[in-house]
Amino acid sequence: MKYMADEMFEELPDLLRKEGVDCRTVYEWIDGKKQKTRAIEDWEIRKFLAQRRSQGEEITLITKDEDSWKQIQVDGLSVIYVPQVIRDFILGREK
Length: 95
Hints:
Blueprint: E1 2-5, H1 12-18, E2 22-25, H2 26-30, H3 42-54, E3 59-63, H4 66-74, E4 79-81, H5 82-93
Parallel strand pairs: 1-2, 1-3, 3-4
């Protein structure tokens, strides 16, 4: 599995790559550049993920943007919504 971190998690790919996880920023995936050079819209991310899936490559978006999460989820694409993961973790520990 490959992962795409949105701009809210710019430092995450470096941390995950050190652990052997194929994770890159939105900019690395879409523009081929590590640094932000322009605003990448949600529709561009959706289109990119859908195209890659159609080519047999599954990439999971990691985001804390609720709108992005909902849009990606509606399209049936793979997404990790960080607030939900944290909520589930905390509620699971309190049981």
